[in-house]
Amino acid sequence: PSIFSGLEIIRNQVTLSHRDVAGSPTLYDLLISLGIGHNVTIKSADLQAKLDHFPETMLYISGRVLEHSIGP
User: What is the model's pTM?
Assistant: First the structure.
């Protein structure tokens, strides 16, 4: 048994602003930045926030509830 309901790996990818429609509003998505020498920005229109997501950091978000995008 696992506490995880799925796994998706997005590698070197920019994602446009979206909501995770297949996700549950009561569960969180774990975003992990791995590797070295890159900087990523996670943006949430709902929170009006831009977050730097450096290597070796993790971020939990409710992807179905919050509109978000990932890019350089």
Answer: 0.72
In whole angstroms, give the CA distance from residue 28 to residue 4.
10
Separation of alpha carbons 20 and 28, rounded Å: 11
Buried b / exposed e across 9-36, counting CB within 10 Å, b at 16+?
Answer: eeeeeeeeeeebeebeeeeebebebeee
User: What digits encode the pLDDT tens for the residues 16-48?
Assistant: 899 988 888 888 888 888 888 778 899 999 999
| CA–CA dist 65, 21 (Å, integer) | 9
**DSSP, res 52:** E
Strand, helix or coil for residue 50? strand
